[in-house]
Structures are given as C-alpha cells and as structure tokens.
Write a structure and sequence with these properties.
This protein is α/β, with parallel strands linked by helices. It folds into 2 domains: 114 residues, no CATH class; 193 residues, Rossmann fold (3-Layer(aba) Sandwich), CATH 3.40.50. Helix content is 49%, strand content 16%. The chain has 16 helices and 7 strands. The chain has a 7-stranded mixed beta sheet. Strand 2, helix 11 and strand 3 form a beta-alpha-beta unit. The model has no long low-confidence stretch (mean pLDDT 95).
Length: 309
C-alpha cells in the first residue's frame, strides 16, 4: 500500500506547493493510479480504491470538481447518471459548475480526459447512425435503451427535422425520462419506463413493436456477459428486416481507469473486441446479414453494429 500512498502524496504535494500546474499534476495522478490498478492484487486494489483514498487529504481537493464529486456521491443511486454525463457534454447549469478556481481547473481536465472525449465521440457516432438510418429508410422507428437525457437528439438532423417515424426512449430513471419528454416530445420522441429485465422478458417486448435501429450507448458497461448476450439476442428479434443494432463498451485498461475507480467510484465492465462480439453469440448466424466492430478515435470505446437479414 506504500506505493499507493506515494502516488497520492505526490499529487497532494504538487497541488499544495504549486510546483507543477494542475494539468501536469493530474497527468501524474491518472497515470500513477492506472499503474497501481494494473499492478496490485485485486484485494489490495479494492481496499485502496474504496477505503484508503477517502482518508487522504487529496480526496477533498479532487471533490472540488463537480463531475468527480457527483459520480462519487451518486445522488440518483447509480453510476454515470444523465446529469453526470451532462458535465461531459457541457450541458450542465452554470450554478452546478465548479465553485473554486482549483475545482475549475480539475473539472477542465476530467471533462476533457481520454474517457470523456470517448463519451463525446460515442454521442457523435450515435447521432450519425440515426441520421444515416433516416436517409436510408423513410420515417424509421428507433429504440434507445438507457437513454439518459437523449442528448444526441439535440444534434441529429433527422430528429430535429421531424424525419423519423418514432424514437422510443427507455430508461429506468424517471427523472431522466421527464426531461426527455419535456425536451423532445414534439419531435416524435416517446418515453418508456423500463429496465433490461423488461426487455429480456419476451412478453413485455412484443408490445413495443419492431425497429429499424436499436442502440444502447453506455448500458453494456454495466452488464455481465451472460446478460449482455441475452439482451442482444432479444433486441435482434425486435429488428425489422435490414434493421441495425448498435452497442458500445469501454475497452479494458483505458487511461482513466484508476481515477474512475477511486475518486469517482465508477466501476465498469470492460470488453475487448472478442468479448463485445460474443454478445451476439446466441443469435442464429443465418439471421445476421452483416456485422462490424470498430473503435472511436480516442481508443476508449468499442462499437458493434449488427444488421439483420
């Protein structure tokens, strides 16, 4: 554990003494924590990341960043809620921003880290996929799982121009759905309160109908492989002929890994290319017309697009 204390002590000393700027201090911390995460035994990392860090004085420094603090505190009871992601998208109210100069500098760093850039790239990819479907199919039906605040709808030309038939936005967080309904109900967006379990139970999915596009942005980061495979199979059965599923997942060993699991208490299930492709292992191969996996430009998030026959 001494190695862990050394990483924390160095960051605290750098910040207090102002020996280096905040960006450089954060670089050292991020890289140091990832190294610790990769080198410590699982049990040792668990103790360090869950207990040791909250007693160190640098914890209060990093908590001045509202993005870090909100995910650690989890006011809605779960990781990565829609308001947390709004910090990454730059769509938070000014009143909920940093309240100190130091907090602002840390906030500027964390919301522009590799992982945050990956999240913004994910939104752009989803937006372009929605627009592409609307160019290929007249008034497509679209299903967004774990939609959050559906921020891609702000950027989609197809949604803003009314060229979709319907977008069904599902989430288990009623506060998120209320905002989506308020913002987008006039743009053919309908909300559906539900969970992964509701989709897996076939009797509950039949009433939702069939779709030209089904996508899930951050959902798979929290699903076990068994559940992910079962869910993907059910979603595939909800596609119209030629319809597409787009899913994504954070890759293993991203640079922000150690920081997210310590100061943000943000713990994901990571997948490599083989593992995300295994999510379609239960689908009958003859039913698949095409599949394509790719990684966004920041090398943090992998995508899998599957087209039905």
């Amino acid at each position: 554990m001494k190695q862990g204390d050394s990483v924390l002590d160095r960051f605290y000393s750098d910040i207090v003494s102002e020996r280096v700027d905040v960006h450089a201090a954060m670089d050292n911390l991020i890289d140091g924590l990832r190294h610790l995460r990769n080198s410590m035994a699982v049990e040792e990392w668990d103790v360090f990341s869950r207990s040791t860090i909250i007693h160190h004085p640098c914890f209060s420094i990093l908590s001045q960043d509202p993005f870090t603090r909100r995910n650690f505190e989890k006011p809605r009871g779960y990781d990565g809620d829609a308001k947390t992601l709004d910090y990454i998208y730059g769509m938070h109210p000014a009143s909920e921003g940093p309240r100190s100069k130091l907090g602002g500098e840390i906030f500027a760093y964390t919301t522009n880290s590799a992982a945050s850039k990956g999240v913004r790239a994910r939104k752009r990819i989803i937006t372009s996929t929605i627009d592409a479907i609307a160019n290929e199919v007249r008034e497509p039906r679209i299903f967004s799982l774990a939609c959050g605040h559906l921020r891609e709808a702000h950027d989609s030309h197809a949604i803003q121009e009314g060229r979709i038939g319907e977008l069904l936005a599902m989430d288990f967080d009623k506060k998120s759905l209320a905002l989506v309904a308020d913002l987008f109900s006039a743009l053919k967006v309908k909300t559906f309160h539900g969970s992964v379990k509701d989709i897996i139970v076939a009797s509950k999915t039949k009433k939702l109908g069939k779709f030209n596009l089904i996508y899930a942005s951050g959902l798979y980061d929290y699903l076990s492989q068994r559940v992910a495979a079962r869910l993907t199979t059910m979603l595939f059965d909800m596609l119209l002929p030629g319809g597409k599923i787009l899913i994504s997942n954070f890759l293993p060993n991203i640079r922000d890994l150690g920081y997210m699991e310590t100061f943000m208490d943000w713990r994901l299930i990571y997948r490599n290319e083989t593992q995300i492709n295994d999510c379609i292992a239960e689908i009958e191969p003859d039913g698949i017309f095409a599949r394509h996996s790719f990684i966004e430009e920041n090398n943090n998030i992998i995508f899998l697009e599957v087209t039905s026959g």
